[in-house]
Amino acid sequence: xxxxxxxxxxxxxxxxxxxxxxxxxxxxxxxxxxxxxxxxxxxxxxxxxxxxxxxxxxxxxxxxxxxxxxxxxxxxxxxxxxxxxxxxxxxxxxxxxxxxxxxxxxxxxxxxxxxxxxxxxxxxxxxxxxxxxxxxxxxxxxxxxxxxxxxxxxxxxxxxxxxxxxxxxxxxxxxxxxxxxxxxxxxxxxxxxxxxxxxxxxxxxxxxxxxxxxxxxxxxxxxxxxxxxxxxxxxxxxxxxxxxxxxxxxxxxxxxxxxxxxxxxxxxxxxxxxxxxxxxxxxxxxxxxxxxxxxxxxxxxxxxxxxxxxxxxxxxxxxxxxxxxxxxxxxxxxxxxxxxxxxxxxxxxxxxxxxxxxxxxxxxxxxxxxxxxxxxxxxxxxxxxxxxxxxxxxxxxxxxxxxxxxxxxxxxxxxxxxxxxxxxxxxxxxxxxxxxxxxxxxxxxxxxxxxxxxxxxxxxxxxxxxxxxxxxxxxxxxx
Length: 479
Ligand code: BG6
Known about the structure:
This protein has about 475 residues and is α/β, with parallel strands linked by helices. It has two domains: about 5-170, 3-Layer(aba) Sandwich (Rossmann fold); about 175-245 and about 265-405 and about 435-470, Dihydrodipicolinate Reductase, domain 2 (2-Layer Sandwich), CATH 3.30.360.10. Helices cover about 35% and strands about 20% of the residues. It is built from 15 helices and 16 strands. Strands 7, 8, 9, 10, 11, 12, 13, 14, 15 and 16 form a ten-stranded mixed beta sheet that branches. A six-stranded parallel beta sheet has the order 3-2-1-4-5-6. Helix 8 crosses helix 14. The radius of gyration is 24 Å and the shape is globular. It starts with a strand and ends in an 8-residue tail after the last helix. Bound molecules: 6-O-phosphono-beta-D-glucopyranose. 6-O-phosphono-beta-D-glucopyranose binds near residues 207, 209 and 228.
């Protein structure tokens, strides 16, 4: 008999589970990628009937799939799902989970709850012998709000799960285009000889959003853009751009290289804080053709010193990247939703084309909304009278190249990788802690200076200081 496996979701009626996890499981079911004997157990406080719980999940799946909802796929998924009433603060309630799991071994526990509950959940899973040596745990950000709290969370997880069985989710690592970065760099010879300070002038990593904070205010206000986006998503992108080629694609080889990058980030302290970082907070403005309120209005008028925009000029202290600025920028209520990495190459050393303004090559890796790669190169315009040059782009649209394929939710890949016990796309403890070490330096500096974030109008590209940040080095943001 094939052993039953299980995915146990804590916080089973929460936002992440409804928006991401259940739709992802539905699509994995549709593609026949879920193991035949996988049971899915949702844990939340309070008892609900199995039917009511299933109806909540069905509604979430229908909302995401719209007209593509297929009752036969749902029925298959429905047959796997059950609910257990478990309250992290009530140890005896874990007996309900033990009962729901029965003989099932080696479950994956997805802790989609506040990190404040991680310690109690892990302790109870161990005490009730629900978790064993083959069990895995998946956890979501925020993994703390600084190095100390991140360590405390990691210690809480480690009381029950070994590091190899701990899967820290950064959903950017599940995005197709982010995965493609590894292919672009390490499955082609074209770029590698140029991928260094000799040929690259600067790198820009932008994750711009048009949405505001709205009903996530109370979570967001404790974190701000630097902890919500830079500590995890943007630094992960920076690692993938800057790291050395790992000897293999296995989890530790890749993560060893990423940690080296994080540890090589030059701390930003003292006077550099003012010159190399910019914090902003959106005021009222116009976003996507409608008037939107200020961050402070969304909070019901409470005054807040939390930033909704950050720009940072980072440097990596190693032989490959010494002296090359890595500009990081993220914000809410910016003019477009766009995540991209721009590698700006250096100017030609000497131009033989007098009268022409040569523009340096630029490689743009677009992650969203559409995925693509474009390379700007100088070309001659066709004419007989004079030599006239013009920059043109070689464009590779990944959605056109792979048309027909559905764009996957990042969590589909992440759930599948955890089920296959492949931790490459998850953040290792030392990686998370190295990222916090660098971020803490900046946050402590900001706190020490007492400076408030600079207001910017919703619908703009952030405070003017963000432009000065690049212009100081003779650079400008790629808009
Ligand atoms: C989350 C942040 O991790 O990423 C959100 O908490 C942000 O604030 C989101 O909106 C952005 O993700 P994506 O995939 O839409 O770029």
